[in-house]
Amino acid sequence: MSVQMIFVLIVIVGMVSALLFEIARPDMIVFLALVVLLLSGILTTEEALRGFSNPGMLTIALLFIVVGTVQKHGLIDQMMISWLNKGKSLKGSLFRIFLPLPLISAFLNNTPIVVTLTPLLKKWAEERNIAPSKVLIPLSYVTILGGTITLMGTSTNLVVHGMLIDYGLKGFSLFELAIVGIPITIVGLIYLFTVGNMLLPENKGFSKQVIEDSRNYIAEMMVEEIFPQINQTVEQARLRELKGVYLIEIIRGETRISSVSSKTVIQAGDRLIFTGLISTITELQKRKGLKLKTGTDLQLDDLKNGNTQLAEAVVSHESTLLSKTIKQAQFRSRFDAGVMAVHRNNERIKSKVGDIILRPGDTLLLLAGADFVEKYQQSNDFYVVSSMKTPKSLQESRLVGWFSLLVLVTAIGCVITGWLTMFKAMALAVILLLVTKSISMEDAKNDVQFNVLLLIASAFGVGAAMTKTGLAQWMADGLLAVGQPFGLLAILILIYLLTSVFTELITNSAAAVLMIPIGIEMASYLQLDPMGFAVIITIAASASFITPIGYQTNLIVYGPGGYKFMDYVKVGTPLSMLVMTVTITIVYYYWF
Fold first, then answer.
1. What is the mean pLDDT of residues 563-575?
2. Where in or outside the cell (predicted)?
3. 297 inside domain
4. Angle 331-335-340 (CA atoms, 0-180°, nearest 5)?
5. What is the CA radius of gyration of the chain?
6. 369 forms bridges with which residues in the sheet?
7. CA dihedral of residues 130, 133, 137, 138 (deg, nearest 10)
8. Please, what is the angle between helix 110-127 and helix 133-146, to 10°?
């Protein structure tokens, strides 16, 4: 190995380790690796920036805008729920929701589909006394499978497509991946409705557990006339910095004061509602003039009123809240929402809420402002998995929703007929939406997930460094040395498994970018069609079923379904093996 190869290998090992231990946001970690390779002279400025102008990456940016416009009008969601409610039995209803879902996720972004359908499916299940855990992992898995059917199904498909073009290959056609995508989706659906369904746990969701056990989450104290701090602010009364609990609401007669500020004045007769570690409330009981109201009939649902609501949110991989305590993040003032409890791995974290350091997948139960769900539905910090009532303004814009859907379908038609490339079709679609004022420039900017684009563009440069220094060739030779004595099938299994391990531990796009240079070098050595290797890597990078952290949609349903980490291992491992078997079999006979 040359010195340059060793240096690039060290950078990649460091990058993967940082991604694995979640030292920072994935996009910043991969971008830092790119900067190190640039400053070291391994990459020229042109090579480092090539990913930022790659057609695949730019197509993803345009897709965010077009698909975002379709999804924000709620047409797909309304149609799905109407379709679901027509089912006459449990299995019939689930068939109705899961059979068309792969077709939708083949053309729309998986993440917003799952964010939108999670609260709707959860509520539907609870109304019928069905454990939400029986439907939410299947929701995630089916959308992942559907995303493998078309070129635009996931960003991973487009990333690989862009890399293939960079290598001078033709890239994927719109439905080329469907040769594998459709069979693995059918096999996956059969598994989820049979063996998979039996392996799924029967858990109550996080919010359901909390509401049924309200006494462990909220306590009520009465302010008596003898309270020394009457007519003083919350801060002056030393009710702001309590150990273990915090003041979340004040009930004054018929008036409710929620998201209590430090300047709120305490009055005699106020009912102070606290949340957090209720076992520590004894400290407050020692204060003169504060009386614990025992036998209170106040429930968590009672905290909801015209100005407040209970909401659930799942912390994302890209969140600016990561590695900070809730107090350090100034959550209450920043989001107009109080954190009532945090669940991790289906267990409540039993420590002072403000001192909890947040991690990806943490589920937060919030007492939030009335507009919280609508306001933060598109947030990068967390996925809001509470139902959003369709505002009147959106109800009146159904025509715009249908128009945006027509634009998307027309753009897809142009790609299928070969009249336009994917990039040109999406560029035209964005222009049409802007010209007709179906979307504003501000909305278009908000729909683009710049952190995802930064990760993808940076990963292109890391992949280029692997190829340029010969590291990809060296790694390919190592895999060939292990697999070649056992034949081509063994080599394909090795490629799939290595990609799968990367995607479960880091991110799907980063896994694809690391593996494509190795796959192309192996195809060149074996004198085989590189498209076969590209298809295996693309499917393996997307088919993340074994951990909740490998794919965004798995993370979204983690808390709402009340799942534990091992639930994904138990249900996802057989599905992963089935998908691998079908994928390698089809690639072996079709491409080789």
1. 93
2. Membrane
3. no
4. 55
5. 26
6. 308
7. -20
8. 160
Asked if residue 442 and residue 382 are part of one domain, the reply reads: no
- pLDDT tens across 111-127, in order? 888 887 888 888 888 87
State which H helix or E strand residue 416 sits in: helix 398-416
pLDDT of 308: 72
Contact between 11 and 33 (Cβ < 8 Å): yes
Burial class (CB in 10 A: 0-12, 13-18, 19+), 164: buried
Q: Which residue has the tokens 């109407």?
A: 82
Task: Measure the CA–CA gap between 479 and 490, rounded to whole angstroms.
Answer: 10
In the chain, the largest separation of any two C-alpha atoms, in whole Å, equals 88
Query: Is 0.85 topped by the overall pTM?
Result: no
Judged against a pLDDT cut of 50, whether residue 396 lies above it is answered with no
CATH number at residue 373: 3.30.70.1450
Using left for φ > 0, alpha for ψ between -120 and 50, and beta otherwise, residue 253 falls in left
What pLDDT shows up at residue 320?
A: 84
The one-character DSSP state at 131 is -
Q: Residue 579 pLDDT > 90, yes or no?
A: yes
Domain containing 322 equals: 308-387
60 and 12 both lie in a single domain: yes
Q: Cα-flanking dihedrals φ and ψ of residue 192, to 5°?
A: -65, -30
By the 8 A CB rule, do 438 and 430 touch? no
C-alpha–C-alpha distance, residues 407 and 99, integer Å: 24
Percent of the chain exceeding pLDDT 90 equals: 37
Beta bridge partners of 255: 252
In a domain, 314, yes or no: yes
The tokens for 453 are: 């684009």
Mean pLDDT of the chain: 85
Q: Could you tell me which residues come within 8 angstroms of residue 464 by beta carbon, excluding any fewer than 6 positions away?
A: 43, 47, 48, 50, 51
334 with 421, same domain: the answer is no
Question: Residue 508 in contact with residue 550, Cβ under 8 Å?
Answer: yes
CA 448 to chain centre: 15
Instruction: Give yes or no for a contact between 318 and 25, defined as CB atoms under 8 angstroms apart.
Output: yes
Residues 407, 435 contacting (CB under 8 angstroms): no
478 and 553 share a domain?
A: yes
Supply 112's token pair: 């917003």
Number of folded domains that form the chain: 2
Surface-to-core class of residue 208, CB atoms within 10 Å of its CB (0-12 exposed, 13-18 middle, 19+ buried): middle
Residue of 121, 161, 163 whose CA lies nearest to 143: 121
- Calculate mean pLDDT across residues 391-402: 60
pLDDT tens for residues 275-306? 777 777 777 788 888 888 765 556 665 565 55
3-state secondary structure of 337: strand
Name the pairing type of β-strands 255-258 and 308-315.
Answer: unpaired
* 3-class DSSP state of 512: helix
